[in-house]
Predict the structure.
Amino acid sequence: MSYATTLNETHDPSLTSWVESANEENCDFPIQNLPFAVFRRAGTSEDYRAGVAIGEMVLDLAAAKGCGAFEGIAQAAVSACDNPELNGFMGMGKEAWGALRLALSRALRSGSDTEDKLKPCLICMDDVEYKLPCRIGDYTDFYTSIYHATAVGKLFRPDNPLLPNYKWVPIGYHGRSSSIDVSGQTFKRPKGQIKAPDATEPSFAPCKRLDYEMEVGIYIGPGNDLGDSISIEEAEDHVFGICLFNDWSARDIQGWEYQPLGPFLAKNFASTVSPWIVTTEALAPFRSSWTRDSNEPQPLDYLESEQNRASGGFDIELEVQLETPKMKEANEPASHLSLSNFKHSYWTVAQMVAHHSVNGCNLQPGDMLGSGTQSGPEHEEAGSLLELTRGGKEEIKLDNDETRKFLEDGDTVIMRGWCAKDGAKRIGFGEVASTVIAAD
Ligand code: MN
């Protein structure tokens, strides 16, 4: 058993916190979660620093580090969190992450003797603003949902939807990190070269087929030196945690530019992460087995392990909602678009990490891997509009009777994630929400 799948006292579903809001049913941030973000009080020029979510509050780790609740490696870890970038803490590895999690769990528990000291370090979540939790040096986007790959492949290549390498190689491409921002972001509709299939030449125009992609983002911990590689057995020791990730996509730009080298300007105008990173350790109760049917290609040795078969998957529910300008005006709730689950992924996180580094490519603390759009086996579980509208051929109807094929200016896409199962305390990821505005 690796640390990433081992249950310990911090996962005990009976634990409660002296922060009352953390004990409410269906709270995303009970004491069993303890995710990390980088924040400050909204509208101030305070330094950004790390916080941990507990109920409706943020525990300010810069303020808490001197409270006496931490010692040894946990004290070193909490001190590393007094920083506007979590790369240092991420690079410290599982002993430091685990020690800080245990110390935080004990300090925030009902009956803890540090309650009086920590109370002044709590800030209401409604009163904070976030930034990216770390410097994302490099970002790679994978393509791990075979349902997404097949559905999209059918639209682009009806006779040949799934290319022959798909079942052997965890497919990915190097994305751009400079345009990744945190939830709350607005971005301009991208412009670019667009060519309709029946047109003889492309034109230059604002994208008309703007889409989202429901993904999870995977933050790398210590990583490997250039020339070394990370084995699949060690892979999860290098995974700090998981966030929600919206990989905005301009489908009409993509269709024209993507061959032969893959996505470029269709993807790099904006991508949005949730502020909160749920640690791999917090996700331990929600691991799922991973299988490959015996009539399918079996993974090559470097992508194969017993541990990966037993518990390589993550059972994370992923929901997408759309809030249109009309809904905002009428104060109506956002409309549900889809619900899927990361456990359907064709490749696991450990396989992504092992594959990415097998050639000696160095992964570094704070690097991010996108999972690729997480579509489930059913049509209504699709993680993009491209799939839900069958390539823009079918309108989808929203709760207020508006319709959409692709996103319109002023639309806000909201993604939520959570883990729930019998015998474990439900934990959530919060949300990632961002809005497209008109092109110049
Ligand atoms: Mn993507």
